[in-house]
Write a structure and sequence with these properties.
Length: 421
Amino acid sequence: MKKVDVILGLQWGDEGKGKVVDVLTPSYEVVARFQGGPNAGHTLEFNGEKYILRSIPSGIFQGGKQNIIGSGVVLDAVLFREEAEALAASGHDLARQLSISKKAHLILPTHRMLDAAYEAAKGSSKIGTTGKGIGPAYTDKVSRTGMRVGDLLRPDFRDVYARAKARHEAILRSLGFEYDIAELESRWFDAVEYLRRFPIIDSEYAINRALAEGRSILAEGAQGTLLDVDFGSYPFVTSSNTVCAGACTGLGVAPNRIGEVYGIFKAYCTRVGSGPFPTELFDETGARLRDLGHEYGAVTGRERRCGWLDLVALKYAIMIDGVTQLIMMKSDVLNDFDTIKVATAYEIGGERTDEFPYAIDGGLKPVYREFEGWKCDLRRIARYEDFPAEFKTYVEFIEHETGVPVKIISVGPDRSETVVR
Ligand code: GDP
Ligand code: IMO
Ligand code: MG
């Protein structure tokens, strides 16, 4: 029996998951997204073209692979349609490649309004969500009032929708939130019809059957471990389980069916939205990382906050996820730095710790180790042996500290700019 390999972000998202899923897909027959929704923006570049995927798995460009939107995902029909139609317009026909789990939850137009209303009500303590209705959709799932993709097949679908909408509108009124969803709602109903063109399946059976038949499966995570609703920097997190266990609950795969766990991290660190970020740089080095790394949100265009690599947080994520192989992204962004820093511990109230604490805001000081920069362009390098010594020192220090091998190194956004060891 085959196992499901999982690929997930180890930081606060945007590590480069889309690129690496695309690179690894030729070795797999099925690619499945297991959580999150259109808050994700996964970027892929190849043959001079750039694509940003939101809900559709990043295995879609490698031809003939089965791609599944799993049951742990929340799906907005309007955004899904936009995404699928844009792909079709660029010559990528999804019809035979993509199926959707019956158990995936639907994001309704009023979920988006609730997201905005809750954020407005929080004022200065707002989370800085992507505004896509993710939190409210997962809230309905957990409070057992959600609508699922499988409900589209029910004859009383519109009644179920009307009840959910009425419930949401009562909350919106109580928050005094002004809105007009008439146009969005009409597009949503059209998009729901569009969605019905795709196979709506019992994805847990499809996936377990594929395993039993010896087909290989790659599970694609969204967001990152530090945004996990249980283990991230709560409450500044997303509303799903982004950790490896989320692949089990989000696909219906038993824990003993998980194989390799690929953990992706940037050679530095970014975060978009509010919340603590111990190694954040507020100076010109942070601005330089943002400029060189083009650190602007793929979904919202927001500036990403930038800082040095945080090994305390990375080791915590590796522990929670059971990472077996590391993938280091955006190494080229550090090409011109004289000195590169890595946080190896935190100092809290005069005490040093290498554990990720319950509260990571206020009074916490990262302890840094400095590395000499490599001062050369990594983008043209294709073999690990050819990397400069300073870069290898950096990589091997991370391996030594984490106890996990760095198997893939990304040196540019293009599919081809990838060094596999
Ligand atoms: P994801 O959400 O984890 O899929 O990551 P995003 O697509 O949101 O953000 C990663 C960004 O970095 C995208 O713009 C990628 O094109 C880009 N990228 C990925 N790998 C590399 C790399 O090795 N070097 C550089 N310079 N850019 C990269
Ligand atoms: P990918 O898959 C980076 C952040 C938001 C906000 C918090 C909660 O591209 O890595 P939400 O809309 O989920 O309720 O927002 O989580 N966030 C992301 N940050 N990458 C993402 O996805 C993110 N998805 C959500 O900025 O701080
Ligand atoms: Mg992203």
